[in-house]
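Protein modeling request. Please complete all fields; requests missing the sequence field cannot be processed.
Requester role: graduate student
Desired output: 3D structure, token encoding
Chains: 1
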Amino acid sequence: MNLSDKGGPLGRPYRWSAWRPIGNSSRPPRPILIVAALLLAATLWSLNGPLIKLLYADGAGLSGLTIAFYCSAIGAILFVPWAWRHRRSLKETPLRARAASVLCFTVMTSTFIAATTMTAASSAIVLQYTAPMWVVLLSPLLLRERATRSELAVVTFAMGGVLVVFLGNPISDRVALAVALTSGVGYGTL
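Delivered output (190 residues):
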């Protein structure tokens, strides 16, 4: 898939911008802070599965919907200050694109958490990370971009991996695995 300046998914040109200052600072952030933020984000992201399992406690704890609500609420609390500082540039984004992003994020989060409460966290995580496969498959429809042969070969290989996950789990887990696969679709369309 080739990204070009001819237009994005909503017919608007892509804008590739360099670092821009936030707030009153005119200098870029220090590299150590960037690395620390990335490590923190990766650590928290990787704790998703175990924390969901801990909170769900095999049905004795919080429901999947309650966990999804609190995850989204915490995310919103952390996101709102950033969004407020960038409200001018966010207003330039069409409402349709913002609404689609919220919908895709909601699908991704709620189905991932539901799948994690229904089956092994590892299976839910692997199927959520089918997102690149969905990007390649949905790009002709959503972005008007055609996949190359090598990308289609990789997608075929990835579909084989999905098949292994489905066949390697009990039949009773198939609904949970389909929910996890839906999380991958939501992640891919995000």
